[in-house]
C-alpha cells in the first residue's frame, strides 16, 4: 500500500510539473498583437518586433491600420493586446467619448512642435512687441501656446489649455514682452518666417521647409510633453509582465538609434 501511494504521489507531482511546463511554454508562445498606423510608426515597429523577440523573448505581431479610430476600438474589444499611434490628449478624448478602458503603458516618441526664427537664436532675445506667429487650428494653437508658456514667454489663464480646453490667444493672461501673437494657417507658417520675428511650426511643415527641429528650432516641446506618443493597453493588463517587456523592447537603444538615424529629428525618442 505504501509503495502504491508513493507511486501515486510521484505520478501526481510529475503530471503537475509537466502541466506547469506546458503552461509556461504556452505563455512564452503567446503572440502579442500590436496595432499601429501605416507609415513611420509601422516602420519603427518592425524594429521593435525584432528586439522584442531577441532581447525579451516576446513574440509580437504588428497589425497596420489606415485610420486613428480602429486601433482603439480593436484594443478595447480584445482584438489587439496593445496599440501605438496616439498621444495622451487624443487617448483622453477617445476614453471620454467612447468609454474605453485603455491606459498608457509607456512613451515612444514625439514629433515636437518648435519655435523657429531667422532673426533670433533664443526666445529670450525677442524684443518687446515682437511679432510671433502661431497655428490657428484649435489643437495646434493650444499646443503652441503651451510651449510658449513652458518657455516662460507667456502665461495662460487658469484651466486654459488643459483638460480638453483648447487655449487661444484670448486666453493669454500674462505677456511681459507684449508679444504680438498672430494666428495663421499652420501650413503657411514656414513661408512667413522671414516676415515675423518667430513662429511656432509643426514638425511636418518644418521638415518640408528644410528646417531640422533638433538643430534649427530656438525652442522645442519637452520630450515628455503630453503630445508624446505612447503605447496603450487595456487597463486590466497594465501590470502584466508582457507589457513591461513590450515597453522595454520599444525603449531600447536599438530602437532609439533607428529613430534618430531614420527620421533625423522629425521623430524624437521620448525615453
TrEMBL record:
<keyword id="KW-0732">Signal</keyword>
<keyword id="KW-0449">Lipoprotein</keyword>
<dbReference type="InterPro" id="IPR004872">
    <property type="entry name" value="Lipoprotein_NlpA"/>
</dbReference>
<keyword id="KW-0472">Membrane</keyword>
<protein>
    <recommendedName>
        <fullName>Lipoprotein</fullName>
    </recommendedName>
</protein>
<feature type="signal peptide">
    <location>
        <begin position="1"/>
        <end position="27"/>
    </location>
</feature>
<comment type="similarity">
    <text>Belongs to the nlpA lipoprotein family.</text>
</comment>
<dbReference type="Pfam" id="PF03180">
    <property type="entry name" value="Lipoprotein_9"/>
</dbReference>
<dbReference type="GO" id="GO:0016020">
    <property type="term" value="C:membrane"/>
</dbReference>
<keyword id="KW-0564">Palmitate</keyword>
Amino acid at each position: 500500500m505504501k509503495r502504491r501511494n508513493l507511486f501515486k504521489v510521484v505520478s501526481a507531482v510529475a503530471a503537475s510539473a509537466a502541466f506547469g511546463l506546458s503552461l509556461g511554454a504556452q505563455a512564452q508562445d503567446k503572440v502579442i498583437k500590436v496595432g499601429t498606423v501605416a507609415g513611420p510608426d509601422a516602420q519603427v515597429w518592425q524594429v521593435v518586433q525584432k528586439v522584442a523577440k531577441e532581447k525579451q523573448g516576446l513574440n509580437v505581431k504588428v497589425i497596420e491600420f489606415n485610420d486613428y479610430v480602429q486601433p482603439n476600438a480593436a484594443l478595447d474589444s480584445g482584438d489587439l493586446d496593445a496599440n501605438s499611434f496616439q498621444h495622451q490628449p487624443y487617448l483622453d478624448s477617445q476614453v471620454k467619448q467612447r468609454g474605453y478602458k485603455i491606459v498608457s503603458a509607456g512613451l515612444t516618441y514625439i514629433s515636437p512642435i518648435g519655435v523657429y526664427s531667422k532673426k533670433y537664436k533664443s526666445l529670450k532675445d525677442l524684443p518687446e512687441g515682437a511679432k510671433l506667429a502661431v497655428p490657428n487650428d484649435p489643437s495646434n494653437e493650444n499646443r503652441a501656446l503651451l510651449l510658449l508658456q513652458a518657455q516662460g514667454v507667456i502665461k495662460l489663464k487658469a484651466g486654459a489649455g488643459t483638460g480638453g480646453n483648447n487655449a487661444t490667444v484670448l486666453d493669454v493672461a500674462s505677456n511681459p514682452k507684449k508679444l504680438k501673437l498672430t494666428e495663421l494657417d499652420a501650413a503657411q507658417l514656414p513661408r512667413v518666417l522671414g516676415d515675423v520675428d518667430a513662429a511656432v511650426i509643426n514638425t511636418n511643415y518644418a521638415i518640408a521647409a528644410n528646417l531640422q527641429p533638433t538643430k534649427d528650432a530656438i525652442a522645442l516641446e519637452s520630450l515628455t510633453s503630453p503630445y508624446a506618443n505612447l503605447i496603450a493597453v487595456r487597463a486590466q493588463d497594465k501590470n502584466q509582465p508582457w507589457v513591461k517587456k513590450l515597453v522595454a523592447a520599444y525603449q531600447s537603444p536599438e530602437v532609439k538609434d533607428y529613430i534618430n538615424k531614420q527620421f533625423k529629428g522629425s521623430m524624437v525618442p521620448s525615453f
